Amino acid sequence: AQAALAQAQKMEAVGQLTGGVAHDFNNLLMAVLGSLELLRKRLPDDPRLLRLLDNAVQGAERGAALTQRMLAFARRQELKPEPVELNRLVRDMGDLLQRSIGPGMRIETRFPTGLPPALVDAHQLELALLNLVVNARDAMPEGGTITVAGRLAEDAAPMLCLSVTDTGTGMDEATLARAQEPFFTTKGVGKGTGLGLSMVHGLAAQSHGRLVLRSRPGAGTTAEIWLPVAAREAPGQATAHGPEAVAPG
Ligand code: ADP
């Protein structure tokens, strides 16, 4: 499970990097191609100059085709947000989570009944939860309890919180400040990729939520993934007859 997780983290990071670079690069190349076409109209009828221009256009077109391939690769990692019952997701991952923790550890779950579903990519959230549980495990070399909990907070907008709490080493302020940075790890070469929390942070941010870390050295850590509540479609209220359909205007 450990190697698979590290692999998934790397693929995720490569995908995000590729997608971002390809997107920006494509925009640049489109600007270059546009300028070259304008130039073609203004160029004097000199075969040598036209050949140079054709070379430049061909190069830019080849680059654009390459960025298209890169985008196609990155698009596979695009998020598909859907309503997700947090307690069901955690229950379904039970065996996998059990196998990821060490001896002398146990996982406790706390979910109030009647939590609304969260709006998030289910597969990515599974990966995020696995990351948090593995971090909790790594922080408790002497064993202990990992608590996975869900709750609803109704401040300005209702938000759901999926949290993982350990009773492990905790983090000092400097570590806490950098923990979500990509490639930041204190686990040593070959052990940590430093991509776990940055992936969780990225997922939370892209889901219009956030990742909050609370930690005290020696006392343990709580990682909270905050997610928006999925709008529940009221039964018997087909969208065409919903309130917006009768609104004036
Ligand atoms: P990795 O686990 O590969 O090191 P992460 O991004 O998941 O990468 O974590 C970055 C760093 O944050 C870890 O190396 C560790 O120092 C710290 N950290 C993360 N989770 C915990 C935790 N539950 N308890 C203590 N430290 C943690």
Automatic annotation (TrEMBL):
Molecular functions per Gene Ontology: phosphorelay sensor kinase activity
Keyword Kinase attached: yes
Keywords: ATP-binding, Kinase, Membrane, Nucleotide-binding, Phosphoprotein, Transferase, Transmembrane, Transmembrane helix, Two-component regulatory system
Identification of the protein by name: histidine kinase
GO cellular component assignments: membrane
Residues covered by the Histidine kinase domain: 20-231
The keyword Translocase appears for this protein: no
Organism expressing this protein natively: Methylobacterium nonmethylotrophicum
Composition bias, Low complexity: 240-249
